[in-house]
Design goal:
The protein is an alpha/beta fold. It folds into two domains: 220 residues, 3-Layer(aba) Sandwich (Rossmann fold), CATH 3.40.50; 36 residues, no CATH class. Helix content is 32%, strand content 29%. The chain has nine helices and 14 strands. Strand 1 and strand 2 form a beta hairpin. It is globular and about 50 Å long. The two termini are 34 Å apart. The chain binds adenosine-5'-triphosphate and magnesium ion. Magnesium ion binds next to helix 1. This is Hemin import ATP-binding protein HmuV.
């Protein structure tokens, strides 16, 4: 997918100032950047939720020319915050995703999607009774049920995930990021907004860094998550090392101000 010269304004405020972004199927592409830098706004433009100027294509097609059902069959969206106002069960919510896409009517799909996010057996429970992290994983199961097959007739499908691990414990952060990686390995495309830079370095193939509504850098984790970036974009003096045995960047909070290269 590609976004060219994207500008978003809300009211009188310019939020994105000409953003160019690219994500490839088969890869996990992370978007990082400080609070308010425009990550969610870019995701919302790319998923058709925000008006924008510029051009956004998904599998080579301008999303403005696509019908809502075409978009729904091609990409699932996990918003940063999802509220559910009615007393739905977990299965009902996942089934809404299934019916929104073209994943078919297989009645076993919700249970399989729930098992994928470690919520086997949660189907009959009320969503409102679940913990925050459980609710977040139900929302991911809903998105998975919408675009269950990462590639259909050679055409990739896409996951757009806005901070999918934000309220998850460490084990479930891995569960969810494994889901994202498996989706990409099976030929789908994944665009994921992240804050945890170590997890990003571990899971992302490519990283785009946003800063004040613009792209500050993009490339491999080792080329983007650097000491200079942390200083320039986050205003934070933190050393960046290498993860043991791997060529990926690694940050430790106690490395603040130590001068480690
Ligand atoms: N509906 C809106 N009305 C006015 N300003 C908005 C609106 N939505 C976003 N903004 C502003 O646009 C900027 C970018 O917001 P956005 O939600 O894209 O940031 P973000 O990078 O996702 O941040 P976070 O890490 O906190 O989620 C912020 O300054 C925000 O206040
Ligand atoms: Mg956001």
């Amino acid at each position: 997918m590609q976004a060219k010269d994207i500008r978003v304004s809300i009211g009188r405020k310019d939020i994105l100032h000409g953003v160019n972004f690219r994500a490839q199927p088969g890869k996990v592409t992370a978007i990082i950047g400080p609070n308010g830098s425009g990550k969610s706004s870019l995701l919302k433009a790319m998923t058709g939720e925000h008006d924008y100027t510029g051009e956004i294509t998904l599998n080579g097609q301008d999303i403005r020319t696509m019908r809502p059902w075409e978009l729904a069959s091609l990409r699932g969206v996990l918003p940063q915050a999802a509220t559910v106002a009615f007393p739905y069960t977990v299965t009902e919510i996942v089934r809404m995703g299934q019916m929104g896409g073209l994943a078919g009517d297989d009645p076993t799909l919700p249970a399989r999607a729930l098992a994928r996010v470690d919520l086997a057996g949660f189907g009959p429970r009320f969503y409102s009774d679940l913990s925050g992290g459980e609710q977040q994983r139900v929302q991911l199961a809903r998105v998975l049920a919408q675009v269950w097959d990462p590639s259909v007739d050679g055409q990739p499908r896409w996951l757009f995930l806005d901070e999918p691990v934000a309220s998850l414990d460490i084990a479930h952060q891995f569960t969810v990021l494994d889901v994202a990686r498996d989706f990409a390995l099976a030929g789908g495309g994944v665009v994921v907004v992240m804050h945890d830079l170590n997890l990003t370095a571990m899971f992302a193939d490519n990283v785009t860094v946003m800063h004040q509504g613009r792209i500050a850098a993009s490339g491999a984790p080792a080329d983007t998550i650097t000491r200079g970036l942390l200083q320039d974009v986050y205003g934070c003096s933190i050393g960046v090392s290498r993860a043991p045995g791997k060529d990926v960047p690694y940050l430790l909070p106690q490395m603040r101000d130590t001068g480690v290269a």
